[in-house]
Each structure stands twice: as C-alpha cells, then as structure tokens.
Amino acid sequence: MTTPTVPTLEALAKGDVIVSETRSFTRDTLVRYAGASGDFNPIHYNDAFAHEVGLPSVIAHGMLTMGTVIAPVLEWLGDPGRLVSYETRFTRPIEIPALEAVDVEIEAVVGLLKPEDGTARIDITASVNGQKVLTKCRAVVKLA
How would residue 6 be classed by pLDDT, with cut points 50, 70 and 90? Predict the structure, then answer.
C-alpha cells in the first residue's frame, strides 16, 4: 500500500488545476442519499410533486451536490481535516431523469496562495451540460 502524497504550498502556483473529473448522479444516487441523510422531500423522488411545485423534474439534493463537488478536493488533500472552510451558492438545480445518469463536471483550481498562514483557496467549478450549477464555490485548505 502506498502513502498518498500530501500537497504542499511550495509545489503549487495560482491557476494550477488540482482536480478535473466527472461524477454521475442517478435516481439511485438520490434514493441512497435520502436514506443516509433523512431528507425525503418529494422533489427529490416524485416527478408529479416536482411538477406541482414548478420544477421541470426531480432534482438532486443541494447537500448531495455540495458533498459530491468537494469530495475530489478532499481526496487530493489526503486528509479531510485540512479543509478549513467551504462555501458556495446554488445557481441551478440538477435535474435527474428517471432512467439516465447526469454527469457533473468538476474542476478545482488554485485561486490564491497564502504562505503567511499556510493556506490555499481552491476555486471550484461544477457544471452540467456546460451550465454552472454552483457559483462562488470555494474551499480554503491548510497545506502547512
């Protein structure tokens, strides 16, 4: 078993892409998340209800989206305890069709390095079909 390499502040530069990957959501993903979180709001599983409240379809849970988007950054860090803060704004819901997967494209880029306190700001883009689903998505990570 190999020990993961812990990223260092010195090895990074502003603009470095640290993560670029795709994660998929299906209705099964929503069911599993609802069971784990206890969030059984029908907008996440019932098409008729989603339409009644003005949504085009069943949508992914917001916290599921946030967790999925930060996961590859935490994997890159090697230690989730190095995450100092994480924030975002929801731009648009992720519609999940009944029988298809939806791909969420995730890219994380070094936005700011702060050697004085050993942290880096990681700017994260999350999009579906070229449209951002989160804005102002940022994580501050401790690297020293």
Answer: confident
